[in-house]
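new request in #modeling-help
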Amino acid sequence: MSLEGIDRHSEALFEFLWCPVCGHEVFSHIPFEGVFCKNCNTQVKLQESRETRGYEEAVLACFDTHSTWNLHVDEKLRRDLPDGSARVKILGAPGAYKTDWWSPAPGEDWEPVERGEFDDMEEPDEVSHLA
Ligand SMILES: [Zn+2]
């Protein structure tokens, strides 16, 4: 994603977003590489959606776990995405975003981790060096 992309998609959007793999909500922008979850390194790419249905903004956030750290270490509190990726459509305006849908749709096989879902669980110290 370009720098312009980040600027255009306001900070408010990133405040709304969270990581569906680990539930954390802080993202880092690495120049020339993209935007990644600061906690687990899942990549997120934003795309403008043409179908706004009258909202000020309509954005697709595409999460991809190809870069995720320690994805299959149970103790690290991660939930892989179906086939390694998932998208969420966000509608609204800065300060008033809402989730329209996830793709694939959450169901029996998979649900996105809720914002802060794992916050109360401690990762054991002995695995923290695996990153
Ligand atoms: Zn994450």
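bot summary: The mean pLDDT is 87.
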